[in-house]
């Protein structure tokens, strides 16, 4: 998959988390992201590595995923990034 | 090599300030573009943006190192440390110049060559380290010819890969980049060859500044969050 589509997948995943009141379990995220399990694992690892998302556990010990400030910034700047890539034909 | 070196002539009053202001403005514009796009790269880790930023970083360095040969040439050239300073300055100028041209090329063709030999980063650093060495072992003119050759190769490669690209939407930026590379190569000639006519230099500088200002304007315009 080319890098630009990768940017779009990341955007979609972060949007799903944001739209779920910024708190979602991994399984629904996998389901809504429309990715294979392997691809999801790769992208999810990337989101964690880049600190776009973080994990936390509720009182019952269930894992949830939430956006970090950097994740929100990515969502905000996504259109700018795409516009920049298009403008300068990068 | 020393006998080939012309002493810079500043026989017209506007030339010396021009030789200082012109590179200074380019350095400021280039560094502004480099730092202004930092967040975009930090968020996306998109290679095209990386090479784009690298281009302007190396242009800034090249214009910065451009001061050194001119400075040492104006100084007492009989002193050995001035000659050494001149050569060292010229080498770094050559390295940064070559890297700027190569980064510009990579920003255009990286998607096509990413998995091939041309996608290997060490290749470009090796070329950038070797080409300026021609100054030491051959002559300044040899180095200039290597830059022109590089410009031709970059232009051909960029044209071939650019026309292959299915997503090529506009030609404007492509020709803008080529003009940037051409004008920069002429800048090198202005530093290394016997004195250009002042009028030609002035025209060259105005065209260079225009191109950089256009790039700056487009960067600032595209960076606005809507």
Commentary on this structure:
The complex is a heterodimer of chains A (90) and B (226). Chain A has helices at residues 3-19, 26-33, 37-49, 69-87, and strands at 53-57, 63-67. Chain A is mainly α and 90 residues long. In chain A, strand 1 (53-57) and strand 2 form a beta hairpin. The longest helix of chain A is centred in the last third of the chain and has 19 residues, at 69-87. Chain A is globular and about 50 Å long. Chain A starts with a helix and ends with a helix. The model of chain A has no long low-confidence stretch (mean pLDDT 92). By secondary structure, chain B is mainly α. Helix content of chain B is 78%, strand content 0%. Chain B has nine helices and no strands. Chain B has helices at residues 15-36, 38-44, 47-74, 80-113, 121-130, 133-137, 140-164, 172-192, 198-222. In chain B, helix 4 (80-113) packs antiparallel against helix 8 and helix 8 (172-192) packs antiparallel against helix 9 (198-222). The chains are: A mainly alpha (90), B mainly alpha (226). At the A-B interface, helix 1 and helix 4 of A face helix 2, helix 3, helix 4 and helix 9 of B.
What oligomeric assembly is this protein in?
Answer: heterodimer
Assign a percent range to the helix content of chain B: over 70%
Topology pattern of chain B, helix = H, strand = E:
HHHHHHHHH
Give the biggest beta sheet of chain B: none
Mean pLDDT of chain B: 79
Global shape of chain A = globular
Number of strands of chain B: 0
- How much of the polypeptide of chain A forms β-strand, as a percent range? 5-15%
- What is the structural class of chain B? mainly alpha
Give the overall pLDDT of chain A as a whole number: 92
Instruction: Please report the total strand number of chain A as a whole number.
Output: 2
Using CB atoms under 8 Å apart, which protein chain pair has the greatest interface?
Answer: A-B, 21 and 28 residues
Discrete helix count of chain B: 9
Major sheet description of chain A = 2 strands, antiparallel
Uncertain runs of chain B: 1-6
Helix proportion range of chain A: 55-70%
Low-confidence stretches of chain A: none
Distance between the termini of chain B: 55 Å
Backbone CA Rg of chain B: 18 Å
Name the shape of chain B in a single word.
globular
């Amino acid at each position: 998959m080319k890098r630009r589509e990768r940017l779009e997948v990341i955007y979609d995943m972060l949007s799903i988390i944001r739209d779920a009141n910024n708190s979602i379990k991994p399984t629904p995220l996998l389901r809504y992201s429309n990715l294979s399990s392997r691809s999801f694992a790769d992208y999810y690892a990337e989101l964690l590595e880049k600190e776009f998302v973080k994990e936390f556990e509720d009182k019952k010990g269930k894992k949830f995923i939430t956006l970090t400030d950097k994740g929100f910034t990515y969502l905000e700047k996504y259109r700018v990034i795409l516009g920049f890539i298009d403008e300068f034909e990068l | 090599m020393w006998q080939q070196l012309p002493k810079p002539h500043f026989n017209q009053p506007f030339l010396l300030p021009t030789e200082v202001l012109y590179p200074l403005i380019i350095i400021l514009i280039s560094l502004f573009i480099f730092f202004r796009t930092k967040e975009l790269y930090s968020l996306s880790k998109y290679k095209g943006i990386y090479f784009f930023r690298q281009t302007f970083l190396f242009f800034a360095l090249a214009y910065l190192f451009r001061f050194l040969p001119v400075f040492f040439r104006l100084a007492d050239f009989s002193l050995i440390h001035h000659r050494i300073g001149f050569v060292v300055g010229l080498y770094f100028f050559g390295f940064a110049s070559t890297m700027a041209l190569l980064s510009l090329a990579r920003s255009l063709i990286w998607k096509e060559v990413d998995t091939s030999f041309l996608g290997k980063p060490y290749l470009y650093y090796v070329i950038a380290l070797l080409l300026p060495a021609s100054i030491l072992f051959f002559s300044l003119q040899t180095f200039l010819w290597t830059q022109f050759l590089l410009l031709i190769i970059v232009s051909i490669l960029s044209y071939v890969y650019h026309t292959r690209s299915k997503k090529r939407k506009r030609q404007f930026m492509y020709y803008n980049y080529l003009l940037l590379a051409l004008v920069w190569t002429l800048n090198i000639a202005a530093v290394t060859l016997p004195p250009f006519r002042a009028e030609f230099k002035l025209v060259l500088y105005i065209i260079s500044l225009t191109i950089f200002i256009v790039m700056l304007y487009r960067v600032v315009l595209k960076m606005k969050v809507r």
